[in-house]
Write a structure and sequence with these properties.
Two copies of one chain form a homodimer.
Chain A: H1 16-26, E1 30-31, H2 34-39, E2 54-57, H3 61-73, E3 78-81, E4 98-101, E5 108-112, E6 117-120, H4 126-132, E7 138-139, H5 150-156, H6 163-166, H7 169-172, E8 173-179, E9 185-187, H8 201-205, E10 214-221, E11 223-224, E12 228-235, H9 239-251, E13 258-262, H10 264-274, E14 283-290, H11 292-308, E15 312-317, H12 320-331, H13 333-338, E16 345-348, E17 351-352, H14 358-371, E18 376-381, E19 386-393, H15 398-417, H16 433-440, H17 442-455
Parallel strand pairs in A: 2-4, 3-4
Antiparallel strand pairs in A: 1-2, 5-6, 6-10, 7-11, 8-9, 8-10, 12-14, 12-15, 13-14, 13-18, 16-19, 17-19, 18-19
Helix pairs in contact in A: 1-3, 9-11, 9-14, 14-15, 16-17
């Protein structure tokens, strides 16, 4: 085992009585097979799997509520499962438990185009959602790399390439249905665009990673498809020039829809993976949304800024198929980078800093990777000050892992010192619990802990994640 | 007393020991004078005053922490005070207690124009903030009617006329410093634009109305002043046409910066109050922010939609002084409306519904007011589906108050049935505690209560507000 799990010893038993009770609810939709447990005991992180004792496939909030109530009586862990694409060990069954797979709760419950809202079950994936609402002329912009489930994206407070313009799950979830630790079903909001009605339970559950409740329905904002879209890419001789172009674009208030950075390694990786021939230099990819004229105006401002920082070329991708190809390549970057060192796994970092500190943070981190001779790529949602260093490590080589974790720890410390955060969009999971303390301080963590204790007194909801009990 | 306070009997004593302790911290900045207590025992609601036992003027987070820690030892209530402009009885000292006046903590702590953020003490008012950051070319858009303090606006999850474009305090607070019930000072976030780092304490404190902690520092997003601004007004023969113009504007995704509705009474009131000569018909006031061309484009789309709904005239206010005069008049509407029935007080309602239901909700409510013969005006941040019926009542006439409260209760029920909220921006305070239960349901309120109990076990933080203990 490469990443030992200190809490493994706390494993709680699945009793015969509990198993029978769960079978009563789920029948053939309960499984204790090794294959099923293995599938639900790992994510995309570099952690080794930690298996749940059983897996159920839920079909309704009521079933989830019944299962959680039963597990609560037995003080038995429950872990919500969507697509298994989390990156920080979120769904690993540290103490065993029941994996509640929500992927079959994949109905779009209501589309309200007249209000720019949609209500979905948690197993709907972001791509599925956009297919299902396409005819309305509306779209849902949040796009993490994976085709994640909306439930998982909500629980992780996910974002992606469009966040610079449209915000993250924090800004785009209007209301939730949640099953509490006691097995009660609650609604946390309405479809009103704003509200001052009491504690913001919606935002409390967004990003709570299954530790405060299980999300079983989500109402989201959706947006009119822009009248016009254009995209452009440009390369730079050095990283600082690329990043400074972004900083100035944001500071001038240009409402870019997307602005993504890829370092040379990442460009090389997507060239290979997606058969592209981009110059293997630091690259920015822009997308502009608006009216025909507005899009042109934005692009001209950005082109001018890029030229000031010595951009090499400024190429337009006006045809939709060219744009799709570029953005698909960007979304594939995680997998493309894996191929730079076959057989290895990626430790994917995720810090976010105030935009004025982005160049400093990114360049110092890059230098650290180079000092440590770590094969890596850096990609970033740089308009938000968020970037990922993907370090390719041999997880069987403890020294290799330690080097990469050292780079990550120093990067997080650097980001926090710059008044940034240890995770822009991936979440805490197992991997960042100590960084969370560094970022918030013990007193704030104590407040989080008091909330966890109040809302989940038996510590059954995804135990051992975000904060220590 | 017109609105009796059921919890008055719970008044807790200010002991000599506690008073001496507070004098040790605040010296001459502690007062128990009747005048000072009266000033701090009322807000802009129609409730009669309820006086705190003492008032202190805090100068630092550390002083607030010391005072709260001391009061917590004595299980003595503490109520944060900003400008006293809340509308739902938020700051009334139901159980007596210590009013902590934060108005002298009015420093802008840090301006970071390069990151589009500013950090302020809670006593800074919204107008003061905009004066202090003016030279940076940036502005803070949230503008409730009153020149409220940023601390109070944060605690109430306030918004205003710009929210349709820029969001509310929910979207614009990045991080807080908060004093907890135990008297600890915590930080809830960073200056990073996004984060997935643990429970969203920032959003939990935003809108918590002083019941979970006392906010002593706020980091806000600020925005580049738009390159171009234009404003337009147009009148309609009926309310439905005005509201339907707004609905279509929002559904088409036009990024209006402001769109305000005033009914005939409200137009008449501001005509009198601000010496204007607007047609006394339902009115829309628009403001557009963007590039020169973008602003023109937006306005043309809106003008076209308004024409389809039979708008009478579409007048431009291109000169900044004309725009200021119009918006000043709009901000004065609350006070202007008070003069429609001299000697009376206003019961100001505040519901918010999905935009497609706005015309129904507003018209049914208007009809109800007319049936009850209540002098009233309706104004609304209609782009968000939010409107206020301001009912002028003689608070010495119980039947008059009851009629108005009946209209309000039916309006709230209507809004909730339409999947809206009982308060768009004013908050819960004393007045909406029952509506909050109607909106969220007992199970969700229980979750809020469990959070309150966990974070404030002695119920010292603004007790008796938002939820019943």
């Amino acid at each position: 085992m490469n990443h030992p799990h200190p809490l493994q010893s706390l494993k709680r038993p699945l009793t015969e009585a509990l198993l029978l009770g769960l079978q009563g609810i789920f029948g053939a939709r309960l499984s204790t097979s090794q294959a099923m447990r293995e599938h639900h005991g790992k994510d995309e992180s570099s952690y080794d799997p930690m298996l749940p004792d059983a897996v159920v496939f839920a079909h309704s909030s009521e079933e989830v509520a019944a299962a959680v109530a039963l597990c609560n009586e037995h003080a038995f862990p429950v872990i919500a499962y969507g697509t298994g694409t989390s990156l920080e060990g979120h769904i690993l069954a540290l103490q065993g438990g029941l994996s509640i797979d929500l992927s079959q709760m994949n109905q779009v419950v209501a589309i309200n185009p007249e209000d720019l809202t949609v209500t979905v079950q948690p197993g709907v994936t972001r791509k599925q959602l956009n297919v299902e609402i396409k005819d309305t002329g509306l779209f849902f912009p949040i796009d993490p790399g994976a085709d994640a489930s909306i439930g998982g994206m909500t629980a992780t407070r996910a974002s992606g390439t469009n966040a610079v313009r449209y915000g993250t799950m924090r800004e785009n979830v209007l209301a939730l249905t949640v099953v509490t630790a006691a097995g009660k079903i609650i609604k946390t909001g309405t479809r009103a665009k704003k509200s001052s009605a009491g504690y913001d339970l919606t935002r409390l559950f967004v990003g709570s990673e299954g530790t405060l409740g299980i999300i079983t329905e989500i109402t989201l904002k959706i947006y009119p498809q822009p009248e016009a879209v254009s995209a452009a890419i440009c390369s730079f001789t050095d990283i600082a020039s690329a990043v400074n172009t972004v900083i100035q674009t944001i500071q001038m208030g240009v409402p870019v829809a997307r602005v993504e950075f890829l370092d040379e390694s990442s460009v090389r990786a997507i060239n290979q993976h997606d058969k592209l021939s981009l110059p293997e230099k630091p690259l920015l990819m822009f997308e502009f949304h608006g009216s025909e004229h507005g899009v042109k105006e934005q692009a001209e401002v950005v082109q001018h800024i890029a030229a000031e920082f010595g951009a090499i070329g400024f190429e337009w991708a006006t045809r939709p198929e060219d744009r799709s190809r570029l953005w698909q390549a960007r979304h594939n970057a995680y997998f493309a980078l894996l191929q730079l060192r076959p057989g290895c796994r990626a430790i994917s970092t995720d810090c976010c800093v105030p935009i004025s500190r982005l160049a400093d943070c990114l360049l110092e981190t890059k230098a650290d990777c180079e000092r440590e001779h770590i094969i890596h790529g850096i990609i970033g949602h740089v308009g938000d000050g968020n970037f990922h260093v993907q370090m390719l490590v041999d997880t069987n080589d403890a020294a290799d892992v330690a080097r990469a974790e050292g780079v990550n720890a120093r990067m997080v410390a650097r980001a926090i010192a710059m008044n940034g955060t240890c995770t822009g969009e991936h979440g805490v999971g197992l991997h960042k619990m100590d960084f969370l303390v560094d970022e918030h301080g013990e007193a704030a963590i104590d407040v989080m802990r008091s909330i966890k204790h109040a809302m989940d007194p038996n510590n059954i909801l995804n135990p051992g994640k975000i904060i220590r009990w």
